[in-house]
Amino acid sequence: MIATSTDVSKPKVATRKRLIDAAARLFALHGYNGLTMRSVALDAQANIAAANYHFGSKDAMVLEMLRERVQPINERRLELLNQAKNNQAGRPLTTHQIFHSLIFPIGEEISKSTKSRCSLAQLVARTFTEPVHFIEKMHQRFFSQIADIYYLELSLVYPNAPAREIYWHLHLAVSSMLGALAQHRRLNDFSRGHCAENDVGAMITRLIQFITHGFDRGIKTQF
Amino acid sequence: MIATSTDVSKPKVATRKRLIDAAARLFALHGYNGLTMRSVALDAQANIAAANYHFGSKDAMVLEMLRERVQPINERRLELLNQAKNNQAGRPLTTHQIFHSLIFPIGEEISKSTKSRCSLAQLVARTFTEPVHFIEKMHQRFFSQIADIYYLELSLVYPNAPAREIYWHLHLAVSSMLGALAQHRRLNDFSRGHCAENDVGAMITRLIQFITHGFDRGIKTQF
DNA sequence: GAGTTTTTCAAACAAGCGTTTTAATTGATT
DNA sequence: AATCAATTAAAACGCTTGTTTGAAAAACTC
Fold it and tell me: Domain spans of chain B?
């Protein structure tokens, strides 16, 4: 259908990839409703019917695009988490290590695509503020299991803290991360030029610290 | 035109108010692109042309709705901030006091409208993730001066910290606040029932603490 | 209560939406 | 070179969008 087993052809997969890339950029910029099949086709220099041919529908296209963008980040998260656990050799992790593994991979992906910089940050953030029916499809599919894993790790660090507190603070941490990603492009204006928004590394480092402090102190002052 | 000086009539202003309320709810639920004039008219039990008659256009209607929702919150913020300053009688404020005055008023407004609960949180948050052209209009109009005031207060608390650090951490604080508001409705699912999302007071209290810790420790560890 | 203004209403407008259809074109395998 | 599936292309489908129109209704003024 789409690709044979010995696939070395170029223009065939190219259109599909161009559509995905265009969809990613336009979704990040304008959200689900603001993304139109025509704008995607125009941006990808493809025909209006191409997207429907390759993906079947707008919904399917956007979900596939999100899958391709989110999956590598989630895989990297678990990789870093397991790496840290191996280094600790049985001793409990620090919350900084845990949040580092959660947030750092996003920074890596943002830095990779030097061209579309902020768009990935916005893309990830937008998946959490899009129209209800669409989030639910996506959120359950890509993030619910990750959330479970991180809850478990944090509850191991604070075995005496009640589940409610762990959940509350993890929720605040994740929400803060998403907020920071969503607002990042405003940093330059907001700071009146004092902070450069193209310094993704600085953003990620500070974000990890900020969230770690918020989480740790919030739990520790009670237990 | 719309209302005389001795205004005791009901149905005249009622339609306009019903439109604003409907616009607020639908904007919070579906965002700017997801809000349609027809859906607003239907929700407000008004004619399709009513909104255009009263406001001129969709853009003008939504901006007016935002103004009516955001302005009282901003006024209350400055009220609480000045209250705290008077209580301190010249001594520097604590960051907790500052962030309390920033965040608490939103909680008050959310609690007021018991009917549409989470919708205000989502509404405020959505104003920051909506299509670019629309944010810029709105953000500059309602939030830029507030940001300046809070930067100033925080720089008085940490007079030795460079402006860059204050801006960075304030940006993270505001972003976290917005993220938490945007994600609040997901709290119940996220925590697998451990945290009740209808407890707005608990959310606000924890959020203020979380952000204060993130801000304070981030600045203090460096200066 | 006539006259004027303000507000409501149903209907229609052009433009844009996701999707479908049908035909032309491509490219690899036979 | 011929064949056949995979892909692209142009045009149109039915539907929804924000906005406009012109007349009816309501409210207010004098």
Answer: 69-220
- What is the model's pLDDT at position B127? 83
Q: Which two tokens stand for residue B126?
A: 């959505």
pLDDT at A172: 97
- Please identify among residues 77-136 of chain A the ones whose CB lies closer than 8 Å to any CB of chain B: 125-126, 128-132
Residue A118 CA neighbour count, 13 Å, CB half:
15
Instruction: Select the CATH number that applies to the domain covering A69-220 from these four: 1.10.287.1080, 3.90.228.20, 1.25.40.10, 1.10.357.10.
Output: 1.10.357.10
Residue numbers in chain A where pLDDT is lower than 50: 1-11, 117
Contacts of B3 (CB under 8 A, 6+ apart): B9, B12, B13
What is the per-residue pLDDT for A114? 61
Distance in Å from C22's C1' to A53's CA comes to 14
DSSP B5: S
Question: Which A residues 26-45 have CB within 7 Å of strand D?
Answer: none
pLDDT digit string, tens, across residues B126-171: 887 787 777 777 887 788 899 999 999 999 999 999 999 999 999 9
Task: Provide Rg for chain A, Cα atoms.
Answer: 19
pLDDT at A13: 60
pLDDT digits (tens, 9 = 90+) for B170-219: 999 999 999 999 888 889 888 999 998 878 899 999 999 999 999 999 99
A185 secondary structure, DSSP code: G
CB contact under 8 Å between B210 and A214, yes or no, is yes
- Residues of chain B found within 8 Å of residue A183, distances taken between Cβ atoms: 128, 171, 174-175, 178
Q: Does A146 touch chain B (CB under 8 A)?
A: no
Distance in Å from the first CA to the final CA of chain B: 59
Structure token digits, residue A174: 């994740």
Are A178 and B182 within 8 A, CB to CB? yes
